[in-house]
């Protein structure tokens, strides 16, 4: 008997019968995606405020009594973990993944709607547990976002009891939430595509999200077991990661553990985590660039295989984060080589974005500004990554602000530019309204130029040797006096960029009530989410009949066609020259 795709079978949907089941306990993938986005945004704002507080200390040392040494390290730790895991991972996969996969695949909903709803509420629980650490004795952990033992669970480190415990429990809960959501994303994209939608007709956004989900399902277990083991070290006194430790002449009752083992487990998760964020970013940026340049994406199959290659290679580069841990030089050479190799498919994607723009009919509207800004920041961050991938260069730079500048350009600025671009792009589909263009452009330029004012100087002071993780530099011979001025300017720029995000939030909310109707397809896009019979799409998305796909997702400026785009579901008889 021939296989019948899930999309062709009648899917029973749990339609809402009250406000609660429509907006709270909703099983509609679009509502769940928006719920993920709202919670990720709120917890991201908490991390943003924390970053501004510790930047005040760095820019104007000793001026603000709110930030003492303990608070400084706690804010740095919480900021890093929230932004990487609870904000960006949740936003790209839980937010965009939920909203886009069923719509772009021509499905009515996720394959497992109830489990999809549970994944959000478990994610929310993980956020609550994490933020609860702000209110326990000793406060949140201040061990740094990498949570390295033995420091993370020994006395003297802020939050070494309750704080680290709540962080670890929260991470374990988050991984459970991700697993429930991730199984949904994979199954829906692979099994619930509508008729005619082959894998090589999928938009690159779906490819990026699906590959990132697969990475997460393989990488998060390493963090999960590491969190359990370090919890046992902290609570029961085991010695998975705790070696013989002597503190001020007093020996702890631990021996035989390996802190390096934790580093391997953490970074076996940690480097794929970079691509768990980056691959959806690549896919969404590709769709924005193609749509707003009115040109098919250059080298679609190459882009797909680059995503797959990056995903596979991301599991063999983790130890380049550990060059200063006493690694055997031969292993350093191995991981430096794999780091350079993974740069090849990544660079191919950059070339393809630039070639897509080449001679395109570029519309510099707000989503496109953010997409082009992303290309700039990602190239700059990627080039500095080649420096740090080389052992001889990384060792002297590893504990300096050079790493902070590089990491934020790649994993901070670039993903957020794509998040903003994606929100400006798909906001009309989710709300039926356009966002204010003037406010959007103000938001872009303040964010784009402001982040360069923050992170480019960090590369410079890093080369000077200014160490990261320090509460105050004090009087140090090798640090010139000009560094204090640079730190002050960085802090002022950070305050401006942080304030600019409230322009975006105002625009996001005010546009629901003040802006004009967007229509069904304001960007004249080809992909299926813009072809739904209703805007915003109703529960079930497609009315009585699912769409049929006749072509790939990038039929822009097709010679002989009646218009400069041909939707994926438009029959060939209606689209002259589009076959």
Task: Please explain how this structure is put together.
By secondary structure, the protein is mainly alpha-helical. Among the domains are: 29-202, no CATH class; 523-579, no CATH class. The protein has 14 helices and two strands, in the order H-H-H-H-H-H-E-E-H-H-H-H-H-H-H-H. The protein has helices at 19-23, 29-59, 69-105, 113-132, 162-191, 204-235, 259-293, 300-313, 329-357, 366-389, 391-397, 401-431, 437-464, 482-514, and strands at residues 246-247, 250-251. It has a two-stranded antiparallel sheet with strand order 1-2.
Q: Counting H and I runs of at least 4 residues, what is the number of helices?
A: 14
The largest β sheet comes out as: 2 strands, antiparallel
How much of the sequence is in beta strands? under 5%
Radius of gyration using CA atoms only: 24 Å
Distance between the termini: 31 Å
Instruction: Report the mean per-residue pLDDT as an integer.
Output: 93
Quantity of strands, as a count: 2
Fraction of residues in helices? 55-70%
| Element pattern in H and E | HHHHHHEEHHHHHHHH
Class from helix and strand fractions: mainly alpha
The poorly predicted ranges are none
Strand order of the largest sheet: 1-2
Shape, please? globular
């Amino acid at each position: 008997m021939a296989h019948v795709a899930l999309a062709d079978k009648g899917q029973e949907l749990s339609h809402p019968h009250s406000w609660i089941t429509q907006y709270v306990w909703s099983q509609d993938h679009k509502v769940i995606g928006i719920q993920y986005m709202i919670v990720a945004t709120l917890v991201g704002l908490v991390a943003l405020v924390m970053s501004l507080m510790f930047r005040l200390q760095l820019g104007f040392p000793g001026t603000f009594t709110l930030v003492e040494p303990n608070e400084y390290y706690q804010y740095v730790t919480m900021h890093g973990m929230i932004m990487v895991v609870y904000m960006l991972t949740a936003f790209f996969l839980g937010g965009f993944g939920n909203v886009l996969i069923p719509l772009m695949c021509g499905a009515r909903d996720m394959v497992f709607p109830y489990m999809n709803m549970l994944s959000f509420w478990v994610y929310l629980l993980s956020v609550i547990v994490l933020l609860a650490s702000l209110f326990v004795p000793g406060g949140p952990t201040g061990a740094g976002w990498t949570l390295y033992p033995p420091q993370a669970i020994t006395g003297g480190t802020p939050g070494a009891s309750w704080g680290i415990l709540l962080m670890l429990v929260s991470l374990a809960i988050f991984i459970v939430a991700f697993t429930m959501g991730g199984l949904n994303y994979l199954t829906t994209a692979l099994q619930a595509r509508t008729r005619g939608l082959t894998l090589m007709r999928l938009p690159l956004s779906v490819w990026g999200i699906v590959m990132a989900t697969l990475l997460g399902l393989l990488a998060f277990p390493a963090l999960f077991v590491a969190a359990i083991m370090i919890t046992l070290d902290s609570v029961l006194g085991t010695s998975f990661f705790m070696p013989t430790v002597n503190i001020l002449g007093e020996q702890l009752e631990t021996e035989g553990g390996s802190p390096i083992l934790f580093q391997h487990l953490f970074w076996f998760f940690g480097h794929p985590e970079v691509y768990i964020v980056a691959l959806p970013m690549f896919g969404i940026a590709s769709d924005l660039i193609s749509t707003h340049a009115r040109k098919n994406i250059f080298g679609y199959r190459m882009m797909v295989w680059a995503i797959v290659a990056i995903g596979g290679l991301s599991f063999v580069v983790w130890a380049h984060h550990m060059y200063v841990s006493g690694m055997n030089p031969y292993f350093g050479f191995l991981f430096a080589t794999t780091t350079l190799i993974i740069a090849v498919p990544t660079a191919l994607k950059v070339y393809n974005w630039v070639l897509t723009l080449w001679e395109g009919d570029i519309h510099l509207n707000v989503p496109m500004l953010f997409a082009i800004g992303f290309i700039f920041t990602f190239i700059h961050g990627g080039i500095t990554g080649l420096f740090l991938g080389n052992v001889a260069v990384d060792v002297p730079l590893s504990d300096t602000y050079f790493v902070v500048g590089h990491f934020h350009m790649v994993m901070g600025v670039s993903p957020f530019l794509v998040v903003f671009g994606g929100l400006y792009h798909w906001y009309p589909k989710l709300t039926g309204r356009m966002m204010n263009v003037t406010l959007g452009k103000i938001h872009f330029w303040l964010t784009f130029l402001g982040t360069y004012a923050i992170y480019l100087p960090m590369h410079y002071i890093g080369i000077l040797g200014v160490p990261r993780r320090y509460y105050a530099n004090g009087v140090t011979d090798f640090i010139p006096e000009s560094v204090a001025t640079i730190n002050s300017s960085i802090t002022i720029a950070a305050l401006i960029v942080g304030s600019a995000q409230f322009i975006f939030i105002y625009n996001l909310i005010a546009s629901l009530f003040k802006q004009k109707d967007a229509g069904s397809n304001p960007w004249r896009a080809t992909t299926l989410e813009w072809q739904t019979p209703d805007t915003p799409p109703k529960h079930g998305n497609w009315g009585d009949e699912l769409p049929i796909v006749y072509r790939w997702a990038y039929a822009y400026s097709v010679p002989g066609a009646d218009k400069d785009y041909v939707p994926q579901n438009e029959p060939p008889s209606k689209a002259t020259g589009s076959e």
